[in-house]
Amino acid sequence: MPISDAFAARLEPLLGDLVAAYGTPFHVYDAAGIADTYRAMTDAFAGEPFRQYFAVKALPNPHVLALLLAEGSGLDCASPVELELAAGLGAGPGDTVFTSNNTTRAEFELALKTGSLITFDDRTALDRTDPLPETVAFRVSPHGLAAGSRLMGDAQATKFGVPVDQLADAYRQAKARGARRFGIHGMTCANELDVDRAARAATDVVELGARIAEEVGIELDYVNVGGGLGIPYRPGDRPVDFRRYAEAVLAARRAAFPRSAPRILMECGRYVTGPHGVLVTTVVNRCGKGREIVGVDASMSALMRPGFYGAYHHVTLPFAHGRAQAPYDVVGSLCENMDKFAIDRPLPDPREGDILLVHDTGAHGLAMGFTYNGRLRPAELLLTREGDVVEIRRAETYDDYVATVPDRPGPVLPAARHA
Ligand SMILES: *Cc1c(COP(=O)(O)O)cnc(C)c1O
């Protein structure tokens, strides 16, 4: 869907001047939209023990993360670098969750040192960790849960989490090693727009947590229902009614835990920042080759989702009012045929020099970027609540592209060592 009316109303009046002054391409994010979305989430859980940890991987720009931390958000990290980023921003013990997969002992040690709430993705990870963290949590595999939820892939083929039938043993094992505090994690949907299905997925985790806690004889400090709430990428999609979602999750918690009130944690990424970002490009090429092609000055390296998994991102030309609509392919410059932002998309006769916006790039956008073909990643700008546009990451340059290459390679294995 087009970005929110509020963001459009803030961005459109300054877009012409901004592009004239700064050039394209760039992503621009709306600080007010991000903070307001976060606040609406916490408001929906007001008075209840709840915390949202922003999934760093969705938009790992330190300035956006700092903004969220200042609002009271925690951060969800999945790698040592993300932990370092969070620590560098002053995230203290308890401000981060560490929900990783295929994790080494060294990574767990770092997570322990930073005071993260750790989720174990399998039982062997628990074996490898000594001492145990103060609170032990396992991620339950999507297997058998919320079967109706789309996009998490084949539950049987998942690499994530502990299978349901091994979960009680996993907690027993932790208990036998002296663990006294426990949590549970489950993320069983992705980009889910149907609020009932999303609530059902969370409810499954809450109910499973209660059953396991009873079976093993432990109390749960928290239930982390993960991320995975969707955003309306397509015109006509409706946003998730977060209040209704929160009410359903709290009702499930009250029913499943009549005597205790474990905290509800979430790790949304896309829902918080996705709709509050736009990729701003310029049309640099128009041609017909059986298909009508619109070439822009950004590539899949700035936004991988459409080319990678056919994801829909809305495209608009803010200054092309009144032109006749016809279908076009919107393409970048990579030597890959999948480098297309849109296929057969009705657009108002794009012309060279037009500004073209790709919407909803606030999550899993630049973060998934790469530098194939030497098409380097563009800048990130932030529209502040005060109305300034600030550069929060410059565009990459040739020097960045070769920064990891030494002028004179030194031997890592001298010939003498293997002669
Ligand atoms: C990717 C991921 C998230 C965030 O997903 P969104 O779709 O951006 O909400 C949260 N938790 C875990 C474990 C993830 O892998």
Derived from helix and strand composition plus strand pairing, the structural class reads: alpha/beta
| Overall number of domains | 2
Bound molecules: pyridoxal-5'-phosphate
Binned strand content: 15-25%
The third-level CATH topology of the largest domain is TIM Barrel
Q: How many strand segments?
A: 17
Instruction: Report Rg.
Output: 23 Å
The number of helical elements comes to: 13
CATH class of the largest domain: Alpha Beta
What about the largest sheet?
9 strands, mixed
The CATH superfamily of the largest domain turns out to be Alanine racemase
Report the helical percentage.
Answer: 25-40%
Q: How far apart are the termini?
A: 63 Å
Description of the molecule:
It is a single chain. The longest helix has 22 residues. Strands 1, 10, 11, 12, 13, 14, 15, 16 and 17 form a 9-stranded mixed beta sheet that branches. An 8-stranded parallel barrel has the order 2-3-4-5-6-7-8-9, surrounded by 6 helices. It is globular, with a radius of gyration of 23 Å. Helix 6 links the parallel strand 5 and strand 6. The protein folds into 2 domains: about 240 residues, Alanine racemase (TIM Barrel), CATH 3.20.20; about 120 residues, Lyase, Ornithine Decarboxylase, Chain A, domain 1, CATH 2.40.37. The model has no long low-confidence stretch (mean pLDDT about 95). The protein contains 13 helices and 17 strands. Helix 7 crosses helix 8 and helix 8 packs parallel to helix 9. With about 425 residues, the protein is of the alpha/beta class. Pyridoxal-5'-phosphate (PLP) binds next to helix 10. The site of pyridoxal-5'-phosphate has 16 residues, from helix 10. Its cofactor is pyridoxal 5'-phosphate. Keywords: Amino-acid biosynthesis, Decarboxylase, Lyase, Lysine biosynthesis, Pyridoxal phosphate. It comes from Streptomyces drozdowiczii.
